[in-house]
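User: I'm curious whether this sequence folds into something compact or stays loose and floppy. Could you predict its structure so I can see for myself?
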Amino acid sequence: MAAALAQPTTYGCSPALLLSSKAAPSSAAAVAARSKNAPGESSVVTDVVVHPIVLLSVLDHHTRRQEGAGRVIGTLLGKRDGDRVEITNAFAVPHAERGDEVAIGKDFNRQMLALHLRANPRETVMGWYATALPDENDPNGESKCIADTSSLIHDFYAGECDDDPIHLVVDTSLQTDAIALRAYKSTPVCIKNEPLANMFNEIRLSVKSSESERICIDRMIGSNSAGGASTNEDETAALQVSMERLLEMLETCSEYVDKVVDGTISADDEVGRNISEVLNSVPRIRPEVFDKMFNDSLQDLLMVTYLSNITKTQLTIAEKLNETLGK
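Assistant: Here's the prediction. I'll summarize afterward.
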């Protein structure tokens, strides 16, 4: 595979890595990168778990893609545990495909990776994602999950990953009224120790939601089913119910402890350990320190809300200008 520095015309990311399929589909360096495995880990990944935030990031990238772009790609972040890979985050990477060549913004990818690692140092590069490429020759309008240039992009990520990269494909064609997800791993096809092609094999994939993600998704579904008619009064009522429930549980625990101290009931070691763990998980903060932290957090929340509203206004103005200039 030939690699050179070039300036892609589609994106302002510089420099970019230009990959061409005129040479061998897989370089020796890429094959060596795929053979790397962490000590004690299985050499074969059989299970991929994807969090909803990754899917939402891919769909947002696809929605904001440039006009005429066939598909979008990005970097997958997560962690590996034996033969199981968990994808917890993702970010977009600019690229351009021209015939049998692919230009990837490698500096942009490394800068974004450095920023993500500052916030989540435990995450590592697990592979890359792409949306399905529309097949113009298919009469049914179906999309291709694996394109001719997928091997080139996979070779690039083989050098970015500590292990064999995972390829996640998101089909946004909605042919079946659903968003299809597929995960692949690549195996180089070699003849006389010379890599000639890549073979993508589909592996098992599942979607897993954390507690915070499930709450957000339920909230999004509830707002959508209600036609977006949720009000601040409903949120206040829900908060009041939660606080009343919390106060009731605290009173129950306090009553139980008082009865144990008085000798009314016998002590339960398991219940005592659970109460102790809950109390130890609550940080001990002086009232004046807590008030200061609360006020600071409130100011930060108001600032984020203000910046979010400004961003929405700017995007709305930009869309209106694009529509006007397009006419």
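Summary: The chain has a mean pLDDT of 78. The chain has eight helices and 13 strands.
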